[in-house]
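Running this now, will post back.
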Amino acid sequence: MLTGVLVVTGTGTGVGKTVVTAAVAALALARGSRVAVLKPAQTGVGPDEPGDLADVARLAPGVSTRELARYPDPLAPNTAARRAALPPVTPAAAAAATRELAAAHDLVLVEGAGGLLVRFDEDGGTLAEVASRLDAPVLVVAQAGLGTLNHTALTVEALRHRGLTCTGVVVGAWPGEPDLAARCNLQDLPAVTGQPVLGALPAGSGTLGPSEFASVARLTLAPTLGGEWQTPQL
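Update: finished.
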């Protein structure tokens, strides 16, 4: 059973981090765990608009959510905070909030913004520093298609360089009709990164209702994350 703190990062923006985070949360909730999701910094969303955590709450009813700051411009958190003349979120604040949530929950998922080394503040704090402060493993969400081998390998190498543990890789949006590159990538990612592929959520999963979403999560995430998925032989 997945417990403790798990940091969720991506190889970039728009790779499916939020849906993967919701899927992991839904499976843990189905096992009876108390689950919280922390979003240290939400960008590109206005004060009264729903952010990523609204999607998580809709897809995984019963999850606790907490957002530390939001900035209207769709930019890196540090840049967005500076443009909005608002204080940035620091790794120390994100780690402290995570510990508070961990005291009352069995599993806390920390979803980053963009990739692993996107800056939170002017001092260069990143999601990698949050994971380091928490001594927490990191799940990498990647794209399916051409270019993902390099992006994912770089992310995993950055984790390794910092002495951080990578739980594995999940493809955030597996196409309904995968092309040759996507099919080959699913087999090549473990060799290139040294990490297991722990699932491939179908593209469009975030539009499903909670019950169907939980079923899809169970079938497309590996046992390490609470599901039943096995890497297909393509």
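The CA atoms of residues 116 and 142 lie 12 Å apart. More later if anyone needs it.
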